[in-house]
Specification:
mainly alpha, Fic-like fold, 7 helices, 53% helix, globular
Length: 198
């Protein structure tokens, strides 16, 4: 699975021009050290969200989740990106049209909230559609996957369901999740979510 992201950031808005590492609150300039620091602090913050979940009120709740997860690491935690991002030649949603996307995703969330709890297939289908659109939006410079997985987990929780899109040591789930999100394959995402929700 390729991981070739490209960022249009000629002004070094997010990257330290000398080290090439994301500017961070800890002033870490080694990419491996930052990766370790990020992993430890985000894991701690995820555990906090498991104990005190955020109520999903719309797309703004995704920003609250991102801010919570990355508050110790980045000054731009919880803020929409100011640069364009593409992966493997496919561009994510352009920043100039974010407001339209936010409104559309809010309608998807509202539709999900109106779904009956006993209809697991419809819940999985609506969650897959939300995930696909949130992933295409990719509103943050970094940490989109972790924030959106927590976002989906909390949406499922509001229906009294458990959903873990990042189970430890389950390569199959991760590969299917990546295939579904990278290729915008809602069918794969729906099947995966349906299998995982309980």
């Amino acid at each position: 699975m390729s991981n070739s992201y490209r960022y249009v950031d000629p002004d070094y808005t997010y990257i330290d021009s000398k080290s090439g590492v994301l500017k961070n609150l800890a002033d870490i300039t080694d990419s491996q050290d930052l990766l370790f620091f990020e992993s430890v602090t985000v894991t701690k913050r995820i555990n906090e969200l498991h104990n005190n979940p955020i109520k999903i009120n719309g797309i703004e709740s995704l920003f609250s989740i991102h801010q919570h997860l990355f508050q110790d690491i980045y000054g731009w935690a919880g803020k929409k990106r100011l640069v364009e991002i593409s992966k493997d030649g496919k561009q994510f949603f352009p920043t100039s049209h974010f407001e339209n996307a936010f409104n559309f995703i809010d309608t998807l969330i509202e539709s999900f909230k109106n779904t009956k709890r006993d209809n697991s297939h419809e819940i999985a289908e609506k969650l897959a559609e939300i995930l696909d659109n949130v992933n295409y939006l990719h509103p943050f410079r970094d940490g989109n996957g972790r924030a959106q997985r927590e976002f989906l987990r909390m949406l499922a929780l509001e229906k009294g369901m458990s959903l873990n899109l990042n189970p430890p040591d389950d390569k199959n789930v991760y590969e299917r999740y990546m295939k579904g999100t990278v290729n915008s394959d809602v069918k794969i995402l729906k099947e995966l979510i349906f299998e995982l929700i309980s």
